[in-house]
Every structure is written in structure tokens, then in C-alpha cells.
Specification:
By secondary structure, this protein is an alpha+beta fold. 22% of the residues lie in helices and 25% in strands. Strand 2 and strand 3 form a beta hairpin.
Length: 170
């Protein structure tokens, strides 16, 4: 009974799940790179906000948001019946994942409107995020075109890495 499909193909939960799973699989090259770095360098994949912004004491208490790697800030509704949350925007350039809009604030708390079908996803400026058009399997995805999301920082710079998992070699 916990499978979203039990609510019907047209349910908000199923549509939202498909939408965010599509984003997850689009970002698979970014995630694979993070996992590679975790394996070879001891980096973390999911990390608290304070891990990247340790000199900002406010981040020491942020426990309802987290990062994938250094660049993808994830803010979610964790309480039932809530559609506005307080989210901390650390001191960096940030962009809304879905619209590409630059967030006009930094180093402060803000209200994020996150109705039941929305998750707060923000890209940190200064990073290049490798992407790939998803397919039903990761083997099929590897045959699809790749892309880049380039999020510029204050100096109009961005950098990134890519670990290519060919699916065969170790």
C-alpha cells in the first residue's frame, strides 16, 4: 500500500513521483560522479548544509535541508499539511532548478512555497552539472544525449567533473 501506483495513474502523488524521478535520472551523471568521489576520495554524496558553509554559524542548525554534493540544495516539506517552509539560502549564487531563475537573496532565511507537488531544488552557482536524458534503464540512458547545466557564480565562472560509468568496466 506504500507504492504510489495504488493511488491511481492520474493521482497527484504518481505525477509528482514521476516528475522528480525524471529529474533524479536526468542528474544521474552528476550523482555517479559524486559516488565515484565518495569511493575514491572519501567525499560525501548527501551532506548537511554546514558541510559546505561551515563558516556561517547559521548553517550549523540547518537540519531540514541538505545538499547533494557541493551544489544541489534540497528543501522539502517534512510536516503534514504544510505548504510553506522556512529555508535558509546560504551565501552563494543560487538558481531554481526547474526555472533557472536566479535567487535574489543569500545568507538569509526565506519562505518557500512548496505545495504537495513541489520540492525545493536549487543549483549553486560556480558548478557545472552533467545531465543525461533518462530512459527506462541506466543501460539505455547511457545511449542518450548528455547535457550540461552551467550555473555561474559571482565572477561568471563554473567548473565541474564527470565520472563516466560505461556500465561494463569495473
Amino acid at each position: 500500500p506504500q507504492d504510489p501506483a495504488v493511488f491511481g495513474a492520474d493521482s497527484l502523488l504518481v505525477k509528482t513521483s514521476k516528475h522528480y524521478l525524471n529529474i533524479h535520472y536526468t542528474l544521474l551523471p552528476y550523482l555517479y560522479t559524486l559516488f565515484y568521489k565518495a569511493h575514491t576520495q572519501g567525499d560525501t554524496v548527501a551532506r548537511p548544509v554546514l558541510h559546505e558553509f561551515y563558516s556561517d554559524e547559521v548553517t550549523w542548525g540547518v537540519d531540514r535541508q541538505f545538499l547533494w554534493g557541493p551544489g544541489l540544495l534540497i528543501s522539502a516539506v517534512l510536516d503534514p499539511g504544510v505548504d510553506v517552509i522556512q529555508a535558509y539560502i546560504p551565501d552563494a549564487v543560487w538558481y531554481e532548478y526547474e526555472t533557472g531563475a536566479k535567487i535574489p537573496i543569500r545568507k538569509q532565511w526565506t519562505d518557500l512555497y512548496l505545495p504537495a507537488d513541489k520540492l525545493g531544488l536549487h543549483l549553486r552557482g560556480g558548478y557545472v552539472y552533467p545531465t543525461q536524458q533518462p530512459a527506462p534503464t541506466t543501460s539505455e540512458s547511457r545511449k542518450n544525449p548528455m547535457g550540461l547545466i552551467i550555473a555561474l557564480d559571482d565572477k561568471n565562472n563554473a567548473y565541474g567533473d564527470l565520472f563516466w560509468d560505461d556500465g561494463d568496466s569495473t
